[in-house]
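Example 3.2
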Amino acid sequence: MQTTIPDDLPRRMRYYQSMIDVDSLISGCEYETLKESYIIFLCTKDPFGLNLPVYTFKTACKEAKDFALDDGVNKLFFNASAFATEKNLEIKGFLGYLCNGKPSDNFTENIDLRVERLKINEVFRSDYMMDALPQSFLLMKFLKSNKNHKRFFGNAIQLREAFQQAQKRIAKQ
């Protein structure tokens, strides 16, 4: 969940999309078999200042805006601060819950119960905090602790492995 809106938010979304694609292709997929992907950011503040509750992005042709590139990429930003303007009641309830923490229907009550249970679970809390650290911080920490880091960055697979190693090292510190 995004509680602040950094300037690089669109680039961060692009990064996540590339990681999804690399993971899919690593496992032996052909380009044609790439699955539909969804990158979803839940934001407590408006990421673009248009006061929309949901921003949906799909790849489209600049010259023919109604012509979409069927690349299977879906990018969504949910803006909890605009929950009151959402017409879909389920989405409105969910965004309202993100904004004020108060469940308003069965769905958000179920989420609230699960969140409370997870807060109690110390293992989950530790993992959650590790995942919540900015990825760039983890990568920089790894680079500083490994003087021979260039050998790890020959391709995207090795970069991913290096990042995962950095997470484990920092978790032990």
